[in-house]
Design goal:
Layout lengths: L1 E4 L1 E4 L2 E9 L16 H30 L1 H14 L2 H14 L3 H17 L4 H5 L1 H15 L14 E5 L4 H5 L8 E4 L7 H8 L4 E3 L4 H4 L5 E5 L4 E4 L3 H22 L6 E2 L5 E8 L5 H7 L4 E5 L1 H5 L7 H15 L3 E5 L34 H14 L4 E6 L5 H20 L10 E5 L2 H5 L1 H7 L2 E4 L1 H9 L17 H17 L2 E4 L10 H7 L3 E4 L4 H10 L2 H11 L5 H12 L2
Parallel strand pairs: 3-4, 4-5, 5-6, 10-11, 10-17, 11-12, 12-13, 13-14, 14-15, 15-16, 16-17
Antiparallel strand pairs: 1-8, 2-6, 3-7, 7-8, 9-10
Helix pairs in contact: 1-2, 1-6, 3-4, 4-6, 10-21, 13-14, 14-15, 17-19, 18-19, 20-22
The protein binds phosphoenolpyruvate (PEP) and magnesium ion (MG).
């Protein structure tokens, strides 16, 4: 038995089997081979072709069964590409005539093919460039006799153990079937952490050298609240954690009794409790926990999940599914927030020295016009089926809001010309997640239908602390009075203009922060489905007048630590 310590990223106890995720992309040397070696390189290419084909066929069948024809199509297309006569002929030519290794021939051919595709005027063909990249990785893995690794292949009910996960890798996780995540990298507020919390997956990150300490198939206990990972526990430890888990489940049962009851303070101040989702497959969390709406649909995860850009129909289907499920309850769809730590394999976002201060969110829409236009069309068409609101990420100026509003009108006119059913009469709101947005909140409130405060980015930008920098995690404090003051500026401006204001960043689900947000008079908190019960119970025990008094005091304090102490002293939280 070994106990490892890390960051308490997502609370909850999990006892399950470890599954190690170690992705490898083989290095390709630029070398040639002797003429006698050529036949072996051809054989290696042919064998890889067969292996990748068999692999793609298996995924095709599995996806077809689980998700239907539309989602499986892509794997059928991969098989077709693999057997394309021209591809085969050209790769064999490179091996025979230029004496390239099979690896080099595959890489050079598919790199060039992807580059040509990327420059085509037809957006549909351009989208397919990413598929060449996928095919290349699989062929290179097969030639190198390395296993195909994909998070989509993680066995049911396992604990994923990895060094790090990119947001697009994270997007592939079947959150419902994963029991835990342990990473040696990763901070408290990066996107893997957020996804884990939203889905209620117990997770510990920043565990040094975890891959060297855990083996595939080891029994692992995660205590997400304490940031502890126990490898191969003895019977006594197992029993202790089984009992803790049972207690947790009992508490969840108690929360269920609050289902259908409002989140209202003892003196009658009402807060709407919404949930954050990343895809329609998270809807079960919303239903199980009785959320009153979706306060943040992180639509970019739909884009990151796929190796090609999701088209209008695919997005339309996803948004409509969510809206139909939610009925009259509001769904706040955030326009794709790409950039920062979230990149797409099929667009070349220029390398930037400071991506979080670079071309991100609304700033990208001018440059990638068709991604933006397609998403708006899909959203307006889906809006016919429910209560949709659109939200703009990374706003720093009034003009950005006006630009999106104009685009919505332009796309509505286009849909009308095409005779497509749509609804453009929807609220368009702004994420307050930059200091600029908080400081000009009075101006933004005049052109916005609602505000939603993104405390994750707001904290990083107000405190000048990179949210994914693990070395600075102590400094990343969303209860710092500077952050609270910015939030209050936005809430006050919204109240003055009589527009709704909510919080969709992580602070909305933090027990010590909720009384302060109630004290500000927040209309809505959007949190992980799993947190709804706990936050509702807390709000039902609070007195809003007392919360206002505490808020006034904490705004005058020097730092986050003092804020926490005062809340603990006043409310025992
Ligand atoms: C935020 O910044 O608080 C937010 C909700 O958006 P994200 O975490 O996706 O950047
Ligand atoms: Mg954000």
């Amino acid at each position: 038995m070994e106990i490892l310590k890390g960051l308490p990223v997502s609370q909850g106890i999990s006892i399950a089997t470890a599954w190690l995720y170690i992705p490898k992309t083989p290095a390709v040397e630029s070398r040639t081979v002797s003429s006698s070696q050529v036949k072996y390189e051809i054989a290696a290419f042919r064998a890889a072709q067969e292996e990748v084909e068999a692999h793609q066929r298996r995924i095709y069948e599995k996806t077809l069964k689980r998700l239907g024809e539309k989602n499986a199509e892509i794997f059928a297309a991969h098989i077709e590409m693999l057997r394309d006569e021209e591809f085969e002929k050209d790769v064999l030519n490179l091996i025979e005539k230029r004496r390239y290794t099979a690896m080099r021939a595959v890489k050079e051919y598919l790199d060039e093919a992807a580059a040509i595709m990327r420059n085509l005027p037809d957006p549909f063909l351009r989208e397919r460039a990413g598929e060449f990249q996928d095919l290349q990785t699989n062929l290179l893995l097969a030639i190198s006799h390395l296993p195909f690794t994909s998070l989509a292949k993680a066995p049911k009910d396992c604990i994923v153990v990895a060094h790090d996960l990119t947001p697009s890798e994270t997007a592939l996780i079947e959150t419902r079937y994963i029991k835990g995540i342990v990473l040696s990298a990763g901070g408290l507020t990066g996107h893997v952490a957020i996804l884990a919390r939203n889905s209620g997956i117990p997770s510990v990150m920043g565990v040094p050298d975890v891959l060297a300490k855990v083996k595939n198939g080891d029994t692992v206990i995660i205590d997400g609240g304490q940031g502890e990972v126990i490898i191969e526990p003895d019977e006594e430890t197992l029993n202790i954690y089984r009992a803790k888990k049972a207690e947790e489940e009992k508490l969840q049962q108690e929360y269920q009794e609050l289902h259908g009851k409002p989140a209202e303070t003892v003196d009658g101040q009402r807060v709407n409790l919404y949930s954050n989702i990343a895809s329609p497959s998270d809807l079960y969390l919303v239903e199980e926990n009785g959320s009153e709406g979706i306060g943040l649909f992180r639509s970019e995860f739909l884009f990151m999940k796929s190796s090609v850009e999701p088209g209008e129909e695919e997005q339309f289907d996803a948004y409509r599914k969510v809206l139909i499920n939610m009925g009259e309850r509001p769904v706040i769809l955030r326009l794709a927030d790409i950039g920062g730590d979230k990149n797409l394999p099929y667009i070349d976002i220029e390398k930037e020295a400071n991506p979080f201060l670079g071309c991100r969110g609304v700033r990208l829409y001018q440059k990638y016009r068709d991604i933006f236009e397609t998403q708006i069309c899909a959203a307006l068409r889906a809006a016919v089926s429910g209560n949709l609101r659109l939200m703009i990420p990374m706003v720093t100026a009034v003009e950005e809001v006006l630009f999106v509003r104009e685009e919505v009108m332009r796309q509505a006119a286009r849909l009308k010309r095409l005779g497509k059913n749509h609804n453009a009469n929807i609220p368009i709101g702004v994420m307050i997640e930059t200091p600029a947005a908080a400081l000009i909140a009075p101006q933004l409130a005049k052109v916005s239908s609602f505000f939603s405060i993104g405390s994750n980015d707001l904290t990083q930008y107000v405190l000048a602390v990179d949210r994914s920098n693990i070395a600075l995690s102590d400094m990343y404090d969303n209860l710092h009075p500077a952050v609270l003051r910015c939030i209050k500026l936005a809430v006050d401006a919204a109240k003055k203009e009589k527009i709704e204001v909510g919080v969709c960043g992580e602070i909305a689900g933090q027990m010590s922060a909720v009384p302060l947000l109630v004290g500000m008079g927040i209309d809505e908190l959007s949190i992980s489905g799993k947190r709804v019960g706990a936050v509702k119970r807390l709000i039902r025990s609070l007195d809003a007048v007392k919360c206002r008094g505490i808020l006034e005091q904490v705004l005058e304090l020097d730092n986050g630590k003092m804020v926490r102490e005062l809340i603990k002293q006043e409310l025992s939280l």
